[in-house]
Amino acid sequence: MISKKISDVDWEDHFMTDKGKIKWILTRERDESPITVMKVRLEKGVTLPDHVHRDQPDLIYVLEGKATMFIDGEGEFPMEAQMVVMVPPNTLHAIRNVEEEVLLYNVFSPAIK
């Protein structure tokens, strides 16, 4: 079993933007976890590049903020606090046009990192 306080995990630079941070809560590399769990913070104005997670669904729970979510086959739609979004594996997607700083709880299974 792995347990830790999220407050004990440091924020690190986001690998897709210089206007974001990630807390790697559980990872294969650091915790030998079979899933990846992270918190993501994106500043107002951020648009992430379109990307794909080949082998994992991307489960996103929006804790705070507003942005636009793009999922191939679904198009763009508003993303806001208290919303859950599941992006299927191997599906092009991106968070675009962050209107209010967003804070996300993000889970991947199997682990990506």
The end-to-end distance, rounded to whole angstroms, is 18 Å
Which residues sit in consecutive blocks of at least 5 with pLDDT less than 50?
Answer: none
| Secondary-structure element string | EEHEEEEE
CATH topology: Jelly Rolls
- What gross morphology would you assign? globular
Q: What is the second-level CATH architecture?
A: Sandwich
Largest sheet: 7 strands, antiparallel
What average pLDDT do the residues reach?
96
Strand percentage lies at over 45%
What kind of assembly state do the chains in view correspond to? Answer: single chain
DSSP, total strands: 7
Count of all domains: 1
Helix vs. strand class: mainly beta
Q: Output the CATH class name.
A: Mainly Beta
The number of helical runs is: 1
The rounded Rg comes to 14 Å
**Helix fraction by DSSP (H/I, runs of at least 4):** under 10%
Q: Can you describe what's shown?
A:
This protein is mainly beta and 113 residues long. It has one domain (10-108): Jelly Rolls (Sandwich). The chain is built from 1 helix and 7 strands, in the order E-E-H-E-E-E-E-E. The chain has one helix at residues 28-31; strands at residues 12-13, 20-26, 36-42, 58-71, 75-80, 84-87, 93-108. 21% of the residues are buried. The mean pLDDT is 96.
Q: Which keywords apply here?
A:
single chain; 113 residues; mainly beta; Jelly Rolls; 7-stranded antiparallel beta sheet; 4% helix; 50% strand
